[in-house]
Write a structure and sequence with these properties.
0% of the residues lie in helices and 53% in strands. The protein has 158 residues and is mainly β. The chain is globular and about 40 Å long. It starts with 34 loop residues before the first strand and ends with a strand. The relative contact order is 0.28.
Length: 158
């Protein structure tokens, strides 16, 4: 089964190479609901191992990754994430994915259950579950469009 990870975490409304301004850089006290952060992910590292008794893709298989968060050619941050296979059949699988976005002024936490087929996941949403610094009260969701360089859009609702 092909496992294209979250790469958010990945989360996307921009074409690769198009620079989009970061809209959520305001302090938490002045941040308005409805702001978005869009970027593509460029892989730094990717490691796979299995916590279960089986080898390869099986329940308990884990993927750890780190990425540069890019707007065009400009790096706006980095992330670190993990996905663990929690359910697997011949036709589909579920991965429990967690990703932390490190941005200027703070971090944004993402989490969700990502469904997949043998071809990998299609576009999916994960929850914004909190953050630090400017994003300490962050809530919302992130949309991920999987690819070699996943496209991500974080939608902050509070």
């Amino acid at each position: 089964m092909n496992r294209n990870r979250i790469r958010a975490s990945a989360v996307v409304l921009v074409a690769a190479g198009a620079g989009v301004a970061i809209a959520a850089a305001a302090p938490a006290s002045t941040r308005q609901a409805g702001q978005t952060i869009s970027f593509t992910e460029r892989q730094i590292s990717d490691r796979n191992f299995n916590l279960g008794s089986a080898h390869g893709i099986a329940v308990g298989a884990v993927e750890l990754s780190a990425n540069s968060l890019m707007q065009g050619r400009r790096q706006i941050g980095r992330d670190g994430g993990s996905c663990t296979v929690t359910r697997l059949s011949a036709q589909s699988a579920d991965d429990l994915c967690l990703d932390i976005l490190a941005l200027p002024g703070g971090q944004i936490d993402l989490a969700g259950l990502v469904p997949s087929t043998p071809q990998g996941p299609g576009p999916f949403d994960v929850a914004v579950t909190g953050g630090t610094g400017r994003y300490q009260d962050a809530r919302g969701y992130a949309t991920v469009v999987p690819s070699q360089n996943p496209k991500v859009t974080v939608h902050l609702t509070s």
